[in-house]
Amino acid sequence: MSSPLADRLDHGVASGIDASASAPAAEADDNQVSNRSSQPPAVRKLPPPESSADTRRRSLVVASFWFIVLCLGLPIWWKTTTIYRANLPLSQMTDWADGKTCSPVFPLQVSVEAPALQDGEAQNLMRITQYALETMTDFPGYRLQLEMPQTTTADQTTDPSRESNTALTIRLQPGDVAASTLHPHLPVLEVTYPPSSIPSPESSSNGFATYLATQLRSTFAEEQAIMSYLLATSSIPSDQQPQGSSLDTTESLSKRMTRSLKYSGTYHLTFSLFTSGPAPSSWDIEAAIDQYMKPVLDMLKPIHNFTIDTQVQLYAAPGVHSQVLSKEDLSSFINAAEWPLSPGIGGAPTVNFVVFTGNQTIGMDSETETSQSWLIPQWGSVYLLSPPPATHVPSDLLKQPILTFTSHLLSLLGTPQSGSLPMRLSTLTRIRSADLLLRASSSLGSLARLSLALPSISIPSSVADGVAKSMHHLELACANLGSTESLEHARIAEAEAERAFFEKSMVGQLYFPDEHKVTVYLPLLGPVGVPLVMGLLSELKAWRQRRQQKAKLS
Amino acid sequence: MRLSSILQLPVLLASSLLAPIPHVAAEHTSNWAVLVGTSRFWFNYRHLSNVLSMYRTVKRLGIPDSQIILMLPDDMACNPRNAFPGTVYSNSDRAVDLYGDNIEVDYRGYEVTVENFIRLLTDRVGDEMPRSKRLLTDDRSNIFVYMTGHGGNEFLKFQDAEEIGAFDLADAFEQMWEKRRYHEILFMIDTCQANTMYSKIYSPNIIATGSSELDQSSYSHHADNDVGVAVIDRYTYYNLEFLESEVQDLSSKKTVGELFDSYTYEKIHSHAGVRYDLFRGGTDAARSRLLTDFFGNIQNVEVDGAKNTTMDEEMLALSKTIAQLREIAAEEEAAASNASQPAKSEPTRSQKKIQLAKPLTDENWWTKKLVGATALAGCTALWALGSYLEAPRN
């Protein structure tokens, strides 16, 4: 084909859609002309020269197409395909996770009641004891703050359980020897002292003060050990942690912490009676629970709520059939495949309590020991009940199982083992709030790391809200660590952090191979892109030609 | 087109390696199994029987149904082409009916999607999702993940409609690790070019194994002439054979390494792959893990010694007293607050309130009102304009 023709074709493409439609027609005409007349191609008829207005219009057409693509198409494409990522306070979140924002040091207030002592004497004793406490180097993470109650009266009816911020009250009574006992009902340490041992105002150390400090320390020793265990297993790097956890207790502690359930505001307790035969077929479980377990559940109310259901299953075959159960047998005793032990009711985690009536016994290593129950970590416990004479199990036969379950429940909830009951409970509150605090912080840290690691994950604004709320409550919890409000705030913080992390819309396929992207975009970009680019190219070419001609002319 | 995600992979890898590794205790307290079949239709019978055989095995070894997530995209037992309605067999001797009468399918039919699978792993589910369909694991849970279906280089097809990529799987595991949702994972996959599926995983404490290398197919073991299709894949068949014969019950001491050593090319007709490098402690630690750590449900029970019942009773008495004390305190407090605000309840007389219709959400309330008002005004204006234009003609 001759070069002018090719040139014209180029022009045809360059002038956009309508022009390109007319180009083949022109070509056809041309051919006809050249065929009919045998004149040399040099005198071939050319189309009339374009007016400069037409050329300008064509440039404008091409430019307007590009303008629309660049200024409207591209932004719309960008906007619609961009993944929305809300701004997260990443550095603050990591700070929380690293324990830089809130050092989990519990200020415990210990109030001292010393009705028999002069004010000055008591103050002095407190000063020395405080000093002795602070110099105990192997007792980190705790700041025991001694204080006198504001109304220093000899009124014995002041009820320490109502002052929520006071962890322990020391009641000093004159006596023969230095001795201390924990009050069984109240968080009170009753200390007797020989009157001669009260320090003089000048002395800086004193035997009785040291004794008092040691007693206080041993009272909080277990709590402190648990707390250091929690910190050690948390995401906080070890250089941020208060040092000095005793390694010898870690083994048993780790076992106990493994056994305990993850914190939840509500637990679902399932009491099941499984029988190997047709009897017994009914039990007085409601009365038994009311009588033997309810008080403990009531007591735990500030920390946990409980929902309860019960069931009776006849002809339930256990997983092991041997008459004497060894310890290995016990782990497969629960017939998980057939026993209906997983009620999908509600959102609360289930604690299972199983009473099995049958004539199997537990074979212990030593002959003297006997046992009827065992605890399954994070799951519940089982009690083997020897078959009752009647088909109905009265509530007094259930007393022992329920009492066992109650103590198992306490250990499943992670209640510390030493100390009086009120002390154990208040310790549980503190441990749980520290646990929740650490867990919420670590969730925030995970979310921060995740949002950095997966740049294509979308982060809706609800996640940012959740993070903000969580951090707000973490601050509140941190501000009054150790109180019951702190537990409440920590609970909210943890729930919000979890919700933010597990945001439902933060999912979907994040990774698309390039082949997928090409196949999606090619059918669109091919037909649209080729005329656009070719039009621009030929327009540029024409523009250059015009300039050269202009230069030649001038 | 944004292809940047590929470029970010090394960065991602590096960040995961450099991130502080949280301390994980050696013991696990619960076992979970995620068993996923991904193909539909009658000629894929073997994939469903693969999954159901694994289901039967983990159940036999004590993992309760509540801790098994079973995803079956099709129901072979009720397929009209099934000559043995209501049953699924994985062997032509038809000795064991895998469907049985005690089977709990968590995700069935069109619920088996890539999205649901990733949601399951990362637990990004709505409140409406029942607990039985969620993977409620924690940092003490060992998880066995088994997948089977039709796959290719770095993907596994779900239901002929979509596919999960090796990157997505790896990212899902990483999210689980970040949230401390597992202790150890055994990932097993039986599909063509299966080893490519675990090649992108970068999270720690995962042992992975697959049936075949890149460009290798995974073959079926044998067909049942009466059922009319292949009933099981080779790789799964020999896994099951080992588990049935060597791991009779929870007391078995067979290790993961011994299972992996039993794979041979002669048996499987493809090169089964194993990946240990992610595991903390390396190859030796991974190989020495007991099979029952993943396939069974080990419970470390604590047997009570001879207990003195008086202690329990004492505790009961104590808690009664404390509950009473609390009640008294609460009453006193209530009395005190009553005394301080005596006539508070007086003015709140029962006023008859008319219940208004309450919108479900009150976000953008004003915007919505404004839009409504504008639309109304616009219609009025149009009407007015129309009648104005019409007026001169008459």
From TrEMBL, chain A:
The keyword Ligase does not apply. GO terms for cellular component: GPI-anchor transamidase complex. Keywords: Endoplasmic reticulum, Glycoprotein, GPI-anchor biosynthesis, Membrane, Transmembrane, Transmembrane helix. It comes from the Eukaryota. InterPro entries: PtdIno-glycan_biosynth_class_S. Belongs to the PIGS family. This is Uu.00g025110.m01.CDS01.
Automatic annotation (TrEMBL), chain B:
It comes from the Eukaryota. InterPro entries: GPI_transamidase, Peptidase_C13. Belongs to the peptidase C13 family. It holds the Pfam family Peptidase_C13. Pathway: Glycolipid biosynthesis; glycosylphosphatidylinositol-anchor biosynthesis. The active site is at H150, C192. Residues 333-356 are annotated as: Disordered. This is Uu.00g024170.m01.CDS01. GO terms for molecular function: GPI-anchor transamidase activity. PANTHER family: GPI-ANCHOR TRANSAMIDASE. GO terms for cellular component: GPI-anchor transamidase complex. Residues 1-26 form the signal peptide. Transmembrane segments: none annotated. Keywords: GPI-anchor biosynthesis, Signal. GO terms for biological process: attachment of GPI anchor to protein; GPI anchor biosynthetic process; proteolysis.
